[in-house]
Here is the input.
Amino acid sequence: MDQLFIVEKIMLVTAITVQANRKSNTTKRKMGEMTTDEFCEKMTNTSLGSPYHRYASVIRTTLRNKGFSCYPASYKESVNAFSSSSLDRNTYKTAKPWLYQSCTEFGYFFTTDLKNQSFTGLPLRYFAKKCSDVFGSVFNSDSLIRGAMVTNRYYGGLNVNGSKIIFLNGANDPWYHLGVTKDISDDLLAVFIKGESHCEDMLQPQDTDSAELIQAREKAFQILQKWLRE
Here is the structure.
């Protein structure tokens, strides 16, 4: 499990960089994240050596930005940290709720099942075991499937059950493929933001925000005002 854990940590550098692509300098400094452009500049810089050595440079830069000397390499220690009930001592206090939702409702995991990609050897069963090890044996592959089916049935999947919902997605956020990007009805509305990435619309406004992001926030605000007046 330690080997799979290390693969997960190394792969997440790419996943989080592409997902977040922080343009906000304040958030970027706080999270220690690179932008996708910075990532690509390193990965195409042949002076750094082979792609292996270029990726090693990416990891070193990410660690330095976050103030770390290295990544943890013990799966057991990670499970113990996730399992802690203390918010003060739990290093995963923000990641743990997301893991729980993934284990019980979503099944959103970064797996490497597809061929012709840079990373291999991280199957769904690894994450199913993590669910069991952190939250208990009742959380397993079968419960993952059932949980995702219940979620889709309750909320309607892409045929959303509900009203007065705004779906905001950034065009550069890979997660948008699982989201709603076109209006479903008069009160199930989509706001698709060109050039933006994961959750940018939820961050504190910055002077450097794009015109598309500013317009998207204003559109959502106007829709909410209209609904509140009804």
